[in-house]
Write a structure and sequence with these properties.
alpha/beta, Alkaline Phosphatase, subunit A, Arylsulfatase, C-terminal domain, 16 strands
Length: 485
Amino acid sequence: MDWRFRSVCVTWGLVFRHLPHVVLLLALAAGCSTKRSDAGAGPATSQSSPSTTPSDGAPASPAAPTTATAPTPKRPAEPLSVLLLTIDAMRADMPWQGYPRPIAPNLTRLAERGVVYEDFRSIASYTAQSVSAMLTGRYASTLYRSGVFFTGFYDANVFITETMRERGIRTGGVHSHRYFDRGKNLNQGFDTWELVDGLSFDSDTDHNVTADKSTAKLKRILSDPAFTKGQFFLWAHFGDPHDQYVRHDMCPAEWGKKNRDRYDCEIFFVDHHIGELLDWAGKEPWWRRTALVISSDHGEAFGEHGMFKHAFRLYDVLLKVPTIFVVPGAEPRRITARRTHIDLAPTLVDLMGLEPLPSFQGRTMVPEIFGAEAESREPIVLELAEDSHNPHYRSVIQGDHKLIVEGEGEKGWGRELYDLRTDPGELTDLAEKDPETLARMQTVFSESFAKIPSISPAGGAKLRSGRIARGPMRPEQDPNSARKP
């Protein structure tokens, strides 16, 4: 009994002291010795006694709720347009994730008012295999594709942009690297597909500076009423953080000139131009019905595991990427549940009011973007399909542990096991030290990849293993087509 209620009891005792003792005893028995009921105590609080559950799991008799539940934000009644901005090689350690150098002030402000995924991965560690997953909702190994490093994709694959265009939604792309030229078929389903002017090509690196040019093209497309009067999907891939790293005049001198310093300057440069784009877009009439999505195609290494740049492996420094959703009606929040780009395409079509494609291998994130509980979707499945330069790597994450398998077959010819909770840098391989966990994770791995119907690459290129890419280009040539979802 708290002090306030005890005072009430004492007061009533004084009032009734001249009444017959039996009346007084009855009053006290009915009041002072009884707990307050929730009905007379104002709003329910978490101090109420919890309900009990019988040992057989059946619920006890209904009890009044003990906490007031905040209403889940409602998604807009009308389907949204989507502006998807991907930034090449953007690592996960950005300022809103704890990086101390203020290299992305505009994106940091965006993160403060958006839905931020704190543990998000690309499904592969280089551009061709990650952006194809964004546009199809499928792992690259399950797509009809060539076997070269700068992978081309055949038109038998189903792109989300095809579904959009069939429903009268305008689709556009703006890109800053010659890889995105039409010969690779990434423009499948796009009404508008533009590369910035003056691009050079180097198969080993990227010398182009393009964020300002990309922003100018985006503004021009979005200024066209024919593009924005109805629903639209516009994707731009900003390439400047890609090696070679350029030091821009706008960056503080104290940042230095080492590789990571110049990379930080590249992020700062792209962030500046994205900030200009978003300041402009916020004044446009279509902005209030547009979802903004920020992500990257992969991470970037600066000596971790003896690696630089990206591709060739499946370590988290190459996979973990920032991902932010700023969606009309969605309140700012941080989501710690693990997600990957396999769920991005289902999310984009859901935001746009379209049905999921039967070919999707992931699921929409829209409910959790609007406040629903972000349930576990583990095991997390990652894959770097073999091509002319990349060996075949596959990986699964379940709970604290991550298993990486190199090569073909269930066990490949090399396995690495890491505890991500105690060793997030993946520095200590436990494959030999912890055979019990290795066996458990091997079972998770085998069950996961049994559900992914891989297709061999086509086109005749010599693969990293020495084999020749002689796979199918379309379903009627595909011996696995009967197993495709």
